[in-house]
Amino acid sequence: MPATQQVESTLTDRYQTTVPETVRRALRLGKRDKIHYTIRSDGEVVLTRATAGDGDDPALTPFLGFLARDLAEHPERLQAVDAGFARRIQALVGRVEVDLDAPLSADDE
C-alpha cells in the first residue's frame, strides 16, 4: 500500500490558494480543469478531479464517488460473484430487453 502524502497550501487574503504540484500530479489536473469537493459529515473534505458528468444527478454522483473511494481505499472488501448468484441474476433479467437510448415514457419521467 502506498504511503500517505501530506501537503499544505496557504489561503490568500482573497481566499485563493495554489494547488500543490504533488496534488495536481495525483489528480492529473491541468490548467482550467475543475476540482470537486466532497464535504463529509465529520468535517473532512475530499478533493477530487471533477469530470464532465459531475453534478448530473445529485443523488447518484455522490454515491458513485463513495463507491469509487471505498473500492480504492478497501480493495480487500471486493468479493467475486459466485456462479449460483450469477445464474439467479440471469434468471431474473435474462429476457428483459433494455434500449438505453429510448426516451422515457410519460409515466417514467
Characterise this structure.
The chain is of the alpha+beta class and 109 residues long. Helices cover 29% and strands 9% of the residues. It is extended. The model has no long low-confidence stretch (mean pLDDT 86).
Can you write the helix and strand succession as a string?
HEEHH
Poorly predicted ranges (pLDDT <50, ≥5 residues)? none
Structural class: alpha+beta
Fraction of helical residues = 25-40%
How much of the sequence is in beta strands? 5-15%
Brief overview, please?
This protein is of the alpha+beta class and 109 residues long.
Describe the SSE topology:
Elements: H1 21-27, E1 35-39, E2 45-49, H2 60-73, H3 83-93
Antiparallel strand pairs: 1-2
List descriptors.
109 residues, 29% helix, 2 strands, two-stranded antiparallel sheet, alpha+beta
